[in-house]
Predict the 3D structure of the following.
Amino acid sequence: MDLETVRAADFGRGLRGLGLNLLVRDVGRSVAFLTGAFGMTAHRAGRDFAILAYGGQMFQLHADRTFAGHPLAALLPEAGPRGAGVEFRLFQTDPDAACAAAAAAGGEVLKPPADRPHGLREAVILDPDGYAWVPSRPLPA
């Protein structure tokens, strides 16, 4: 599937497995953050929608306004962070490099990189919408 030219209906019919869709206030700002902080690849990035790729996996961003008729729209906060209680874990992403890039990309380091007892070096970075991204790398055995 060519992610740059695929029609919306064909894209939807081609999706498999678990899907992730984030509702964001500003798609362009979110794309800039995710590509800048984590090196993700963006496809079809526009005002209302983008496809992001990371580690061979795809997910979608949709602008809030595209969900006006969806029941989630009434639950979205007008201000403040979103996604409390959810972490998006980016395995095989250097947390030190991601934290260094996060501020310039519009994010906030919530927890700086640290070696954790579960075998990973990881950090927690909030994006401009308040979603928590956890870049991590395995520690040596």
Observations:
- The two ends are 39 Å apart (CA to CA).
- The longest strand covers residues 108-115.
- The chain is about 20% helix and 35% strand.
